Structures are given as C-alpha cells and as structure tokens.
Amino acid sequence: MFEQTFKNIDDVLRKEAGCTTELDYTEQTSWLLFLKYLDELEGDRQIEAELRGQPYAPILSAPYQWGTWAAPKGVDGKLDHNKAMTGPDLIDFVNGTLFPHLQGFKQRAPAPDTLEYKIGEIFGEIKNRFNSGYSLRDALDLIDQLSFRSQDQKHELSHLYEVKIKNMGNAGRNGGEYYTPRPLIRAMIQVVKPRIGDRIYDGAVGSAGFLCEAYDYLKPQAKSTGDNETLQRRTFYGKEKKSLAYVIAIMNMILHGIEAPNILHTNTLGENINDIQEKDRFDIILANPPFGGKERPEIQQNFPIKTGETAFLFLQHFIKSLRAGGTAAIVIKNTFLSNSDNASVALRKELLESCNLHTILDMPGGTFQGAGVKTVVLFFEKGEPTKHIWYYQLDPGRNMGKTNPLNDNDLAEFVELQARFATSPKSWTVAASSIDQTSFDLSVKNPDAGEQVALRSPEAILEEIAALDAESATILAEIKALL
Question: Where does the record place the N6 adenine-specific DNA methyltransferase N-terminal domain (predicted)?
Fold first, then answer.
C-alpha cells in the first residue's frame, strides 16, 4: 500500500542537491516520518482524553503542528494551497523556526524517558538537508499520505523502513555499521529466549535491529495491559554514539510499536565500567559492536584490559553490564578467538573464567555486506566458569553477497541443534579443560572436517581464465607472425 509512496519520496530526495547518499535519504525520511507519526499519536491521545472527559494538552503548540505548517487542509480534506508554505518560505520556516523550537524540547522535557525529551534529542542531532522548498513540499505531500493508525499500517511502514536501513547498510561507506542481517538477529534471540520481565540491552544500538526483533519476539507473549506496559517502558534499553544511527534507532522502534524508546545518545565506552552497579545491569544483552575502530587512551582508561580495539572494550562493558545469571549474544570478528596480543588473551581468559561461554557460532564470509571480516557470535551466561563450548560452523552452501543474503532457513539447523548441543558434521563440543591455559586460543577447528581446502571465489577463477585467454591470444599472434 505504502511501497510506491516510499519510492516516490526517494525519487524526490535524489533530485535534491543536499542529499547524495542512502544515508541522507534515510535521515531525511526519518525526521519527516517522525513528525507525521507525532501528529497522529497526538490525534489518538486527544480522542482518548475526550472519551474519558479529560482535557488534552498537545505536546506541540499550534504553529508547529503538522496540520498547520506541513499539511494544512481545507474543509474538503484536501491540501489548502493558500495556507501551505512552499519554496524559500518553507525552508526558512523549517530551518529558522521549526527546528530551533523542536531542539528546545530537550531543556523543557520533564525527564529523559519522555517523548518530549526524544523530540529534543532527535532535532538537536539532525539537519534539514533540503535546499529546495519545492522538493520539500513534494516530500511533505507524499509523507502526508502515510498513516500509522492501524497495526497493519504500522507493520507495513516498519517493514519499508527496515528495507531503507538495509539499503543504507549495503550502500557502503559507514552505512553497514548500522545493519546486522535480521535472520542472524532472529536466530540469536531464539537461542537466548527472552521472557517478559527481562531487561534487554544493546550498548551499540545502531538501527535498533536487536531491540526491534526482540520486541517482535516478545509481543505475542504479552497477555495483559501490565505485560504491554512492561514491554513499552521497562524492557528495551540502548545506547548509541552516532547522531544518524540514534535518530534511525528511535524511528525504527517507534514504527515497531514502542512509543518512547529508552535509547540514550551517548558514547557507551566513555563510562568507567567500575562505576556500573547492580541497578545498571541487564538480564539479556544482544549486540553487534563496531569492530576495527580505535579508541583514544583516555577512553581505554575506563577498562581494566587496555586495548584500542573498540569491539574488545565493548565486550568488557557487556560482561560487566550483565547481571549474575544473565545471558548475552554478541557478534565479534573471528580474530578475537585467536589473536595473541596481551589484551585478546586476557579478555578470553576473563570470558572463560567469569562466564559460561557455551556456544560459538562461526559465520561465513560475506555475512555482512561491504565488511571484509569474518565474524563469530559468542553466547554466554554470567556467573559460572566455562566447562564446555559447543561450536557450530554455518555453511549455507553458497557464496554470500548482496544478491544472495543470509536467510532464516540458513540458520534453522543451528537453532535446532544448539537447543541440545548436538554433534553433527557442522557442530562439535570442546571441553574447557582442553583449551591451552597460556594462549586461551578458541579458534574454530572442526575435528571432523579433515584437511581444509581453500576454495577460490568464482571472480578469482574467471579472472584467471581471462588472463590465460589473453596469454593464449598473444602466443597465437606470435606464431601467426612467424608463418
């Protein structure tokens, strides 16, 4: 129903000089969607208040409401072109009046967990990238066609927004930082099995894929208004350092049905982990922290195991943030399992001694679009040392890529075998007592795999064929010249 509208919005953005990448398209769509959502939410709240015979004080005062500046309607319900701003007037209003007013909500909000505070945070972080008020008018008219009223409409919008995030992740640059393949997230959640009442945390929230999928997993379990209230307010927590990701995470969670997401815009690693107290801990942690980043010495001072590698600092943060008996599933690059530097060895030792690292899922190359690293997923419970590690080597039987991404079927066997730690041609168990107590090497070595043969990619084979063809043509030309 809304798919064509989304395509038309992208077409408008492509013509706009201020928007050049998929990241820009997603950012600009996000703030427009958010204000349209807010308008409908306020409408619903007003109706509810009237039914209860109570007055309703809107969050946004009249000049800043969607129906005043974005889509003023006549008595016929159609856009009133006499009242609707366009061209330079519209850009001046958005940049000079609307955004400054919305940014001010951060100071005026009663508390950080309110929608008012989120409004201030969002509009303090993003810029309007429309230079043409005519393009912006076109986009506003398209956004106004969308509706969030029914569950079906919200479901479709959340699906279309996920597609935008996926496209952004595939577009290269740093878009991939925000996108973890959803089939992998769903498999991780199926292994961890969250329940209503668990506090679930992602300290590198990105586009909030883990929290949204966990909400979708838990929603059918909600049997009462109390359960729904718990899911809305006391279940999902996240932190995100980057402005664009923060805005996308908020919008993604809202579209999935969480009205005021508990996402903080902060550098998670800026917190000294010794300051984490029991009240700050979580039952479940699901995350794919950025890897390959380098942190400054003052950030490293917040951690007992000093390292510049961002992902290793996050892993220390996650272990500390997990309550005793809590469960985590963390994506990390596979070199963590075997690196011989002091920090990697110390971190593996810490993980094995303070947690039960019961499962390691080895992912194939190409799982993450545009990332040249192989990854593993660590599943662990805090509070008891590791006795056995069950490994599973995922092999989908094809080369992974943009046109051939990971799907739910690829992970079905892993989820099924993991439930009983079953041995198979792709899975095996290693006793912690057999792990080298000096290096704590956790490398993925399938004892039944036999000699490993390095398989070349089709591209490499075709390149070699082309080179041999060129060589043959040269030799034939030389022979002909001799005749």
Answer: 4-102
Residue 235 belongs to some domain of the structure:
yes
CA distance 136 to 91: 8
Residue 167 lies in a domain: no
377 and 483, same domain (yes or no): no
Choosing from 103, 134, 149, the residue where a domain stops is 149
Distance of alpha carbon 341 from alpha carbon 343, whole angstroms: 6
Q: How confident is the model at residue 260 (pLDDT cuts 50, 70, 90)?
A: confident
User: Is residue 408 domain-resident?
Assistant: yes
Q: What is the rounded distance in angstroms from the CA atom of residue 450 to the CA atom of residue 456?
A: 18
Q: How many domains does the chain have?
A: 3
Give the span between the Cα atoms of 212 and 263, in whole angstroms. 12
> Domain range spanning residue 479?
454-483
| CB contact set of 35 (below 8 Å; sequence gap of 6+) | 66, 70
pTM, whole model, 2 decimals?
A: 0.85
Phi-psi region for residue 251, left (φ > 0), alpha (ψ -120 to 50) or beta? Answer: alpha
Indicate if 326 and 380 belong to the same structural domain.
yes
- Residue-wise pLDDT for 76-91, tens only, equals 999 999 999 999 999 9
Q: Please tell me the distance from the alpha carbon of residue 439 to that of residue 280, in angstroms, as a whole number.
A: 32
Res. 230: pLDDT tops 80 = yes
CA dist 320 and 355 (Å) reads: 11
Q: Is 435 helix (H, G, I), strand (E, B) or coil?
A: coil
Token pair 């800026």 is at which residue? 270
Q: 430 and 460, same structural domain?
A: no
Do 276 and 407 share a structural domain?
Answer: yes
Does residue 388 share a domain with residue 240? yes
pLDDT band for position 375 (cuts 50, 70, 90): very high
Q: How many distinct helices (H) and strands (E) make up the chain? A: 18, 9
Residues 126/247, Cβ–Cβ less than 8 Å:
yes
| Judgement on whether residues 379 and 474 belong to the same structural domain of the protein | no
The three-state secondary structure class of 135 is helix
Provide the terminal-to-terminal Cα distance of the chain, rounded to the nearest Å. Answer: 70
Residue 158 inside a domain? The answer is: no
Can you tell me the distance from the alpha carbon of 69 to that of 62, in angstroms, rounded to the nearest whole number? Answer: 9
CA pair distance 146, 5, nearest whole angstrom = 8
> Does 130 share its domain with 223?
no
Q: Residue 107's domain is classified under what CATH number?
A: 1.20.1260.30
Asked if 100 and 206 sit in the same domain, the reply is no
Best CA proximity match to 176, nearest among 333, 382, 370, 339? 370
